[in-house]
Amino acid sequence: MVLDKEESVSLVSLQSREKPRGCAGCNGKIRDRFMLQALDRYWHEDCLKCACCDCRLGRVGSTLYTRANLILCRRDYLRLFGVTGNCAACSKLIPAFEMVMRARDNVYHLDCFACQLCRQRFCVGDKFFLKNNMILCQLDYEGDTLVKDDVAPCRVDV
Ligand SMILES: [Zn+2]
Ligand SMILES: [Zn+2]
Ligand SMILES: [Zn+2]
Ligand SMILES: [Zn+2]
C-alpha cells in the first residue's frame, strides 16, 4: 500500500571534497554546485519535476507530493487525489478527478444525477427541477400536487 506523502524540497550544496551523487531522476551524476534533496534522495535541479505538468519542483521551500510512485506538484495532487465534495444524492465522497454534475450548490456523481422518483437520466440542456434538494424531471414535478415552492427550474450544464 502506498501512503500519501507530503515532502518538502531542500536545496543542498555539494562539498567539493564529496563524491558526486547520483540523481534519482536521470541516474546521472550530479556535478552541479547545488542539488535538490527530497524523498531521501538527490536530484538535479532540472530532474525533480511534476509527473503531470512537468513543472520544476525545485523552488526553495516548495512542497511535493507522492502517491503511487508519482511525484506531483500540489496543484496536480489536489486535482487527482483531492475530493470535490459529497454527492448530494448518495452522500458519498466524490474524488476530484471524477466528472460531476452540478446543480446550484450541489454536486452529483454522473450516475446519481437522475430524477429521484422515476430514475430518468438527464442530458445536457434538459430541464430538471430541484425541490427540497431532490432532483425531479419535469413530468414528476408537474404531477406533484403538493405546494410547488422552493423549486427552481434548472438546465443541465457540465
Ligand atoms: Zn538528473
Ligand atoms: Zn504539476
Ligand atoms: Zn452519488
Ligand atoms: Zn421523474
UniProtKB/TrEMBL annotation:
Pfam families: LIM
Gene Ontology process terms (BP): positive regulation of transcription by RNA polymerase II
PROSITE patterns, alphabetized: LIM_DOMAIN_1, LIM_DOMAIN_2
A GO CC term attached to the entry: nucleus
Molecular functions (GO terms): DNA-binding transcription factor binding; metal ion binding; transcription coactivator activity
Key words of the record: LIM domain, Metal-binding, Repeat, Zinc
Top-rank taxon: Eukaryota
Domain LIM zinc-binding: 21-83, 85-147
Protein name: LIM zinc-binding domain-containing protein
